[in-house]
Amino acid sequence: MKLLVSQKLLFPIVILLICFTGLTMAIGKEKLEVAVFEGGYGIDFNQKVGEEFAALHPDVEVEVWGNPRVGEQLRPRFISSNPPDVVYPIGPAPIDVWQLIQLGKAYPLNDILDSPAIGADGTFGETFIPSLLESGKVGDNYYLIAGNNDVYSWWYNEGLFEDLGISVPTTYEELLEICEVIKANGIAPFTFQGRYPLYMTAGFLLPFAIRVGGIQALVDAENLVPGAWNNEFFLKAAEMTQELLEKGYFQDGALGMTHTESQVEFLQGRAAMIPCGTWLEAEMIEQIPEGFRMRMMQIPAVNPDVDPAIVGTVVNYWMVPADAKNPELGAEYLKLLFSVPNCEKWVKEKMSLTPILGTGSVAESEALLSAVEVMENSSVVFIEPFVGWTPWYPSLGKVIDDGMAALLNRDISPKEYVDTIEAEAERIRNDERIPKYTRQY
């Protein structure tokens, strides 16, 4: 006796089998979720790395998403202990990664850093610029990976320097001499992003203090050593900044300029120099006149007994949340993203430097290569403490930046400025509720 099955009955059975098989395959796959801040560099590169990760791990489904306010969207997910597997939570509403570390919400990255590097000899951790790697360490564990390496110094108009017959200054005295020549030719020696005083904090106060008292001057200040913010080093730095102001070496009206307005002034040749990070060229690419040659210089020496070959860099951080469903996959994604091959691609595609040693040498921009030269010839690459999205002590950064604006507006003296900073540092130092951090170079 034959068992007859009608076509009407057979069709839904086949569909159910197909759906069940697909569901089984989906259930069998692990998922990697990557959340990224979408800023000027977009998220296309991260998505390409996600595709590469999926090809290397066919048993893993990869989702890479992002937008300009990713931090804001991630906050409720951290509260509910359901974060993505790896995050870059910076932007206008950033997540305080340092607070997450204190709350035990960050996954230690020691193991992945000790694993073999991709596309390079040694371990993954050994491929990093040491100071950038160490900046993500708290206690005995590495919790954060530097997501960028925006070297910060002074940019100058090379063509203008040649036309005026002046050279890049190597000492503060030489700086004053060339500023006088530039000013005499009707050009502002410096412009700056006055609406955002942190550009001047990073461009003048901190590097001047370092060149007076050495890198330990900054280390002591960051580590909240009593009296470090209003000692002779920072007072001299504030006085030097004031001297440049009083000599008329800062462009009139710069205090009211946005970052892009002041940068246009530089690109149009109305100012010879400007403090900024390596994002300058990429940010202003549409406004750069044909033939314009911007180059980065090392900030001149002040104290002959102090090595001036020290440069800062702006760093923001990636993190693997401890409560993620697949933190191990999140760590593996970071290893692939910051592999030497991918970092070299990033430098070429995005005109931006990475925290990985040697990758800047593949830059195709002469401007960016000049920054690479400054960095590679520096004995110390220090972390700019107040320019990134999540500084250790936000209130201290605000006092420093507000005070810089007041100093440039001639509302306070250098002594009043540094005393105000030290008062806030003392308040933080004595508040046991505020976690304290230390750094050493």
From TrEMBL:
Protein location: Periplasm
Keyword hit for Repeat: no
The keyword Transport is assigned to this record: yes
Annotated keywords: Signal, Transport
GO cellular component: periplasmic space
InterPro entries xref list: Bact_solute-bd_prot1, SBP
Major place of residence: periplasm
Subunit structure: The complex is composed of two ATP-binding proteins (UgpC), two transmembrane proteins (UgpA and UgpE) and a solute-binding protein (UgpB).
UniProt similarity note: Belongs to the bacterial solute-binding protein 1 family.
Name recorded for this polypeptide: sn-glycerol-3-phosphate-binding periplasmic protein UgpB
UniProt source species: Candidatus Atribacter allofermentans
Gene name per UniProt: msmE
